[in-house]
Design a protein that fits this description.
Helix content is about 30%, strand content about 20%. The protein has helices spanning about 15-25, 65-75, 80-90, 105-115, 135-145, 160-175, 190-200, 260-270, 290-300, 315, 325-335, and strands spanning about 1-10, 15, 30, 45, 95-100, 150-155, 180-185, 220, 220-230, 235-245, 280, 310, 340, 360-365, 370-375, 380-385. Strands 1, 2, 5, 6, 7, 9, 10, 11, 12, 15 and 16 form an 11-stranded mixed β-sheet that branches. The longest helix is centred in the last third of the chain and has 15 residues, at about 325-335. The relative contact order is 0.18. Keywords: Transferase. This is Beta-ketoacyl-[acyl-carrier-protein] synthase family protein. Belongs to the thiolase-like superfamily. Beta-ketoacyl-ACP synthases family. Pathway: Lipid metabolism; fatty acid biosynthesis.
C-alpha cells in the first residue's frame, strides 16, 4: 500500500518542513502550561492560535478546537488538494475516511456545561449536536473533503491513529474502498489535563523519555493525515501492521510487554521482515515509569545494537489519539530525509535500555522504520514503513 501524501501539525510547527527543521535543530515545542483558567504545573505541546482561528463558513457547524486543528492539518503541505484529486480520480464514494481521536471535541462539551443558561441548557452557540459526539472528527473530515463513502472514527486511546492505517488497508484490500484518508487529531482540554494529573502521570518538567529521572508525560495536541492508495507509481510504503489487546490493566502495560510483542511479531510477519531489517523505531516512549521500562526491554531483547530507536515525545508532547499519525509521519520523514531522530532530554538512560535507544540524531541510510503505539487498556499497534525508491 502506497502513502502518496501526508502532513502533520503539532507544537513544533505546521507541515513537514517545519517538523523536519525542529527535528534537525533539536528544538522542542514544549512550553510551560498556560491552558485553562487554573493551569496545573506541567509542560504542554500547544498549537498556537487555535482560539483565533475560524473554519470556512460552509463548515461552521463543526466549529470547535479539535476541528479547527483538523482543518489546519488538512490545509498544510497541500494535503487537501491531494485528497480532492483522489476524490476526483476514484469518486467521492470510493475514498474512505478513517481517523483516530481519544477525546474528539469534548472541549466544546466542557465549555457548554460551563456556560449553561438559566434553564440548564447548552448556550445557543453550542447547540450543535455533531460537535458533542465521538464521531465529530470523522464527520468533519468527510464533509470538508466532499466525500460520501465509508467514514470511521477510531477511539482506542493512544493507538487510535496508528490503527487507522490497519483498518484502511483492509478496506482497500477487500475492495470496499479504492483509497483512504487516514489521520488523527486530539486537542488539549480540561478533562485530559486534569484526568492525567489525577493518575499522577503528568510531569512538572519537560518529559524525559527513558531517563532514570523521568517523572511522567507532557500532554500535547496535534493533527496529521495521510493518503493511502493501492495503485500509485510513487510514495512510501505501508508494508505491514500488527494489532493486539492484552487487557492487562486500564492504565498500565503488561509487565512483560505481551501485547506489544504480539503486535510487533504480526507487523514484521506481514511485512516479511526480520528485526535486523529495521533501521529506525519510533517508540511510544511516553516518559512514564512502566511504559518506558517495558518498551525498552522489548527493544533490547529483540533488535540488534545497530538499530536506532527513539522517542519523539520531547518535541511534541504526548498527543494521545493523534500520537500514532504524528509519529508515523515522523517515521516517514526519517526515511525520506535519512535523518533518524534521537531522544530529547535523555541524559542518563534507564538500566533497562539497550544500545538501540539513542540520545543523539543520526544521519544515515535507512530503508525500513517501525512506529510503536501502545495505549491505555493494552491497545497496541505497530506499523512498518518502507522508503520510496
Amino acid at each position: 500500500m502506497r502513502i502518496t501524501a501526508y502532513t502533520l501539525c503539532s507544537a513544533v510547527g505546521e507541515g513537514r518542513a517545519a517538523t523536519l527543521a525542529a527535528l534537525r535543530e533539536r528544538r522542542s515545542g514544549l512550553t510551560q502550561n498556560d491552558f485553562g483558567s487554573s493551569p496545573i504545573p506541567t509542560w504542554i505541546g500547544r498549537v498556537a492560535g487555535l482560539e483565533q482561528q475560524a473554519l470556512p463558513t460552509e463548515l461552521a457547524d463543526w466549529d470547535c478546537r479539535n476541528n479547527r486543528l483538523a482543518w489546519r492539518g488538512l490545509v498544510a503541505d497541500g494535503f487537501i488538494e491531494a485528497a480532492r484529486e483522489a476524490r476526483n480520480r476514484y469518486g467521492a464514494g470510493r475514498v474512505a475516511v478513517v481517523v483516530g481521536t481519544s477525546t474528539s471535541s469534548i472541549g466544546a462539551s466542557e465549555e457548554a456545561y460551563a456556560r449553561l443558561d438559566a434553564d440548564g441548557r447548552y448556550p445557543v452557540d453550542l447547540r450543535r449536536p455533531i460537535i458533542h459526539t465521538p464521531h465529530s472528527l470523522g464527520d468533519f473530515v468527510q464533509h470538508a473533503l466532499g466525500l460520501t463513502g465509508v467514514s470511521v472514527t477510531v477511539a482506542t486511546a493512544c493507538s487510535s491513529s496508528a490503527k487507522v492505517f490497519a483498518q484502511a488497508e483492509r478496506l482497500i484490500r477487500t475492495g470496499i474502498a479504492d483509497a483512504a484518508i487516514v489521520g488523527g487529531v486530539d486537542t488539549l482540554c480540561g478533562s485530559v489535563l486534569f484526568g492525567f494529573n489525577s493518575l499522577e502521570l503528568v510531569s512538572p518538567e519537560p518529559c524525559r523519555p527513558f531517563d532514570v529521572q523521568r517523572r511522567g508525560i507532557n500532554l500535547g495536541e496535534a493533527a496529521g493525515f495521510a493518503l493511502l492508495e493501492k495503485q500509485a507509481p510513487s510514495g512510501a510504503w505501508l508494508l505491514g501492521y500488527g494489532e493486539s489487546n492484552d487487557a492487562h490493566h486500564m492504565s498500565t502495560p503488561h509487565p512483560e510487554g505481551l501485547g506489544a510483542r504480539l503486535a510487533l511479531s504480526d507487523a514484521l510477519q506481514r511485512a516479511e521482515l526480520q528485526p535486523s531489517d529495521i533501521d529506525y523505531i519510533n517508540l511510544h516512549g511516553t516518559a512514564s515509569q512502566k511504559n518506558d521500562e517495558v518498551e525498552a526491554k522489548l527493544v533490547a531483547d529483540l533488535f540488534p545494537a545497530t538499530t536506532c530507536a527513539s522517542s519523539t515525545k520531547g518535541w511534541t508532547g504526548h498527543t494521545l489519539g493523534a500520537a500514532g499519525i504524528v509519529e508515523a509521519a515522523i517515521s516517514l520523514l526519517a526515511l525520506e530525509h535519512q535523518l533518524l531522530p534521537g531522544t530529547l532530554n535523555l541524559n542518563i538512560p534507564d538500566l533497562a535500555c539497550g544500545p538501540q535507544i539513542r540520545r543523539d540524531n543520526l544521519q544515515r541510510e535507512a530503508s525500513h522504520a517501525l512506529s510503536f503505539s501502545f495505549g491505555f487498556g493494552g491497545s497496541n499497534c505497530v506499523l512498518v514503513f518502507g522508503r520510496d525508491r
